[in-house]
Design brief:
37% helix; Rossmann fold; three-stranded antiparallel sheet; six-stranded mixed sheet; 24% strand; 10 helices; alpha/beta
């Protein structure tokens, strides 16, 4: 009987430079199926570069990326919707690339738009006709449309107000539970990391290196606001974290 190995994403001894300036140094990271990992660290430590390497958008100078997942979705800090396409066609863009029929693409886009709080009228609008929050909803729907088994998030919620941010957090958690999606996210918001991640990886220095990893045992769908606030405070009290962010010891 053939043993099926669960998929994983492995970054092996990843080192990178920009114009000969070191950005990342000997970073090793392993993400398992259905696991959520948040990468945090100060500005300039290489968080986004590391995510771009994981997404195969940037090739590392040294090291290796082994992605065993079948479908990888990405959501960036900016929605990056194509301005000449309607909301419907933006949400369905990945499905079109996969060869899904137009009828099925439109059905999936309509359902996801409804789930995200967009109206059917919004589906016929172009990005310039949508508010920033509506564009973010559409961008997350586009990422969900292909039912990724790996989702990469680059500061995806950083520009949103607290209400919309909380709403999209819940959408993300529901999707992860339903489809057992692995999530690798970059965030500068420690509270967001505590709310959404099973494991928090802290980068520090220039070039960036992993200085510590923290595991959060309570399932994400059981975390109350009080639990998140307390564990964020506990995280900020750790010496390695304070050192990484140049906070007083």
């Amino acid at each position: 009987m053939k043993v099926v190995t669960p998929p994983s994403l492995r970054l092996l001894q990843v080192t990178h430079r920009h114009a000969n300036q070191p950005v990342l140094e000997q970073v090793c990271l392993n993400l398992q199926a259905a696991e959520s990992v948040a990468i945090v660290g100060p500005s300039g430590c290489g968080k986004t570069t590391l995510l771009n390497i994981a997404a195969n958008l940037v090739q590392p100078w040294e090291g290796e990326v082994v992605n065993g997942f079948e479908r990888t979705g990405v959501m960036f800090q900016q929605p990056r919707l194509l301005p000449w396409l309607t909301t419907r066609d933006n949400i369905a863009l990945g499905l079109k690339a996969m060869g899904v029929s137009r009828l099925r693409r439109e059905q999936v886009a309509a359902q996801l738009a409804t789930d995200m709080g967009l109206t059917l009228d919004d589906l016929d609008k172009h990005p310039a006709e949508l508010s920033g929050g509506m564009q973010s909803r559409a961008a997350l729907a586009r990422a969900f449309a292909i039912q990724p088994d790996l989702l990469l998030l680059d500061e995806a919620f950083s520009s949103l107000d607290i209400g919309l941010k909380s709403e999209l957090y819940q959408q993300l958690l529901r999707h992860q539970i339903q489809f057992q999606t692995a999530i690798l996210m970059v965030t500068h918001d420690l509270m967001e990391a505590v709310r959404l991640a099973d494991r928090i990886v802290v980068l520090s220095g220039q070039p960036g290196r992993i200085c510590t990893e923290l595991f959060l045992a309570l399932p994400t769908n059981q975390r109350t606001d009080a639990w998140v606030y307390q564990h964020t405070a506990d995280l900020l009290a750790l010496r390695d974290v304070r050192t990484a962010f140049a906070l007083p010891i």
